[in-house]
Design goal:
Ubiquitin-like (UB roll), about 10% helix, mainly beta, globular
């Protein structure tokens, strides 16, 4: 299935979860994840099933002031 991660299209197997997408892009913690503009807690990443054309945003924190 096709999903969009940070505005780039990727192919994942059906019934993939957020952690599969994070592995695909080699995401390094810390980060936050939103699916279709809805924040998903880290505790749910391993069970949140993705759907065709879902849009994920993986956001790293920024420090400074």
């Amino acid at each position: 299935m096709r999903v969009i991660v940070n505005q780039v299209a990727y192919e994942l197997p059906n019934e993939s979860v957020i952690t599969d997408a994070l592995s695909l892009i080699e995401a390094k913690p810390p980060y936050a994840v939103a699916v279709n503009l809805q924040f998903v807690p880290k505790t749910k990443h391993g069970e949140y099933l993705l759907n065709e054309n879902d849009q994920l945003e993986v956001i790293a924190p920024v420090t400074g002031g």
